[in-house]
Amino acid sequence: MKAKSVDVVLVGGGIMSATLGVLLKQLQPDWSIQIFERLGEVAQESSDPWSNAGTGHAGLCELNYMPEAPDGSVEPSKALVINEQFQVSRQFWSYLVAGKLLGAPKTFINSTPHMTFVWGDANVEYLRKRFDCLKGEPLFAGMEFSDDPAVIGEWAPLLVAERHGNDPIAATRMMSGTDVDFGSLTHQLFDYLTRNGAELALETQVTKLHKQRDGQWRVSVRDNIGQTPRSFTAKFVFVGAGGGALALLQNSGIPEAKGYGGFPISGEFLRTDDPAIVAQHHAKVYGKASVGAPPMSVPHLDNRYVNGQESLLFGPYAGFSPKFLKKGSWLDLPGSIRAHNLVTMLAVGARNVDLVKYLVGELVASPHKKLAALREFMPAAEAKDWYLITAGQRVQVMKKDRVKGGVLQFGTEVVSSADGSIAGLLGASPGASVSVSIMLDVLKKCFPAKVSEWEPALKKMIPSYGTLLSVTPAAAKKSLAATAKVLELNN
User: Fold this and answer.
1) Could you tell me how far CA 127 lies from the centroid of its own chain?
2) Which of 202, 319, 387, 473 places its Cα 20 to 30 Å from the Cα of 268?
3) pTM score, two decimals?
4) Which residues have a Cβ under 8 Å from the Cβ of 216 and sit 6 or more positions away?
5) What EC number(s) are associated with this protein in UniProt (predicted)?
6) Chain segment 112-143, per-residue pLDDT in tens
7) CA-CA distances (angstroms) from residue 15 to 242, 263, 268, 450?
8) What total number of domains does the chain contain?
9) What CATH number is associated with residue 404?
């Protein structure tokens, strides 16, 4: 059967493919786009609202973006970068809302204060230093700090109710934080794409990526129902398949994918929908990670808005599974091992004993221990009010390192071929929150000759494009106010 020819193939039905697809549809409306998703609906893996915490990562409350150095100092650069990237997402979403390309803002984003909460002398002192470091930054204007239990109780009553003992506590609060339903957002982005000519094939597995002599990619697919094989040719392929991206990039044969490995981490959340409890907590409250815990396992007590319903979520409780996707295969991890990444993976394993110990401890944690972790945040928590849900499967990047042999890298990484004809995304948090910024990187890497032509349109969609809000207080204030107005958020 003759292969159907398209300009762009997007592999995976998550927030990354959706974001890139909408950007390209705005920039090159004449390009044909074909999307493949192996499940029966989009946003069923990491983009599902209950697979992630919907935090809208902006560095406002996540302490792992500002770790304390051995000399006791704190440095804000990572938090500033994450916040800057989230502002890019807010601007793009505002553009889409204003143009009626997305639905009402409250269907996917809602104002939710972001807080950090710690206890113990050392942690209180650290949080005070972090606050002093950030309070003068333009994108962190309005940050509040308190070590007064009465004030913290006004901010988030559940944190102090029935809290006993003499341990000092402290918290910071940013009223400009948000909760994002990435599942709803992803659905709306794909709805826009399919209304405007993009083709979406569900229940369709990409089985092979082959570079042809003419420079195009032959994309072989198979329907899950009927197992009918088909093929397409594409000038550009983006692999946004979450945990499935590594296998497809390896399958493509591009040298840039060599040396990469993946370390899967599973997880669970505790959730309550009890209106009496939910009404007492309106914030996302992050603490400090346990020793050896990966950044995605920082404990937090979150307000969530999903499908018009408010709930509370606590976790995550990390664990280990060899699957790279929630609905993946038990052979995903062993199947990802290659000669070119074996040394990398062995080196990472040898250097991350604390992480392995942490995951083993989480795997064997009893319901009582899980409740005890919740009670560190919410002393009055009762087991009967909460139930476990499965979080998204995350795959941390393992990559070559000349000195260490291999390192475990937290965050996300774009892997692209030298000619820019294929790109894929590896890694995890803060992925979804900074999806627009990441996809702009994909455009720059893969379409360098088109970026200057696209720049006027990009600046229309993202007014701060090419500049940094973090070093221009007036522009930061203006941008925050403008996006808050369009997205119907509280400043």
Assistant:
1) 24
2) 202
3) 0.94
4) 5, 233, 234, 235, 421
5) 1.1.5.4
6) 999 999 999 999 999 999 999 999 999 999 99
7) 10, 21, 21, 23
8) 1
9) 3.50.50.60
